[in-house]
Amino acid sequence: MDVKTTNPQLEADAQKYSLSTEQLQTLGVKAIQAKDNAYCPYSNFRVGCSLLTTTDKVITGVNVENASYPNGVCAERCALAKAVSDGERSFKALAVATDISPPASPCGSCRQCIREFCDLSLPIFMYDVDNKYIVKTLGEPLLANSYFGLFLAATYELWTKRFEDIGK
């Protein structure tokens, strides 16, 4: 579960985004660990998120699915809601972790919610199944990390198996 710490890129990224190496490591570890609390019985697609506030608190969130799909909550919006309800309104960085490679980026709804509270310079660290990350700012194009046909096919396969299991 450890974030790859031997990667010299971690120190460079921490410095680039005005974070300490420890803050970046903690941000990644918390997002990865948060996946364990995801509630995703329909898709089996676990997502964990962690937010680093400007007061140096790390707040986590997970995806919470609902049988009525539009009522589910993404991990990023869950973390933002927890942060705002705790009085936090300003953030240094965000990490999101999934069980796929390449890693998934926040969806459009989450990006809009993140933008409500964050500058376009906010770094978003996206962790994959091997706990390796890529980083882009909120203002950079994230479409290259969007959902695509193979991802949707894999998700469909998981859903199909899940519904078959329910029917037994």
Structure description:
38% of the residues lie in helices and 18% in strands. It has five helices and five strands. It has a five-stranded mixed sheet. The longest helix is centred in the C-terminal third of the chain and has 19 residues, at 149-167. The chain is globular and about 55 Å long. It starts with 7 loop residues before the first helix and ends with a helix.
Q: How confident overall, as mean pLDDT?
A: 88
The percentage helix is 25-40%
Number of strands: 5
Order of helices and strands: HHEEHEHEEH
Radius of gyration: 16 Å
Walk across the major sheet and give the strand order.
2-1-3-4-5
Ends distance: 34 Å
Low-confidence stretches: 143-149
Shape: globular
Per-chain topology:
Elements: H1 8-16, H2 21-34, E1 47-53, E2 58-62, H3 75-85, E3 91-98, H4 108-117, E4 123-127, E5 133-137, H5 149-167
Parallel strand pairs: 3-4
Antiparallel strand pairs: 1-2, 1-3, 4-5
Helix pairs in contact: 1-2
Main features:
168 residues, alpha+beta, 5-stranded mixed beta sheet, 5 helices
Offer a quick outline of the entry.
The chain is of the alpha+beta class and 168 residues long. It has helices at residues 8-16, 21-34, 75-85, 108-117, 149-167, and strands spanning 47-53, 58-62, 91-98, 123-127, 133-137.
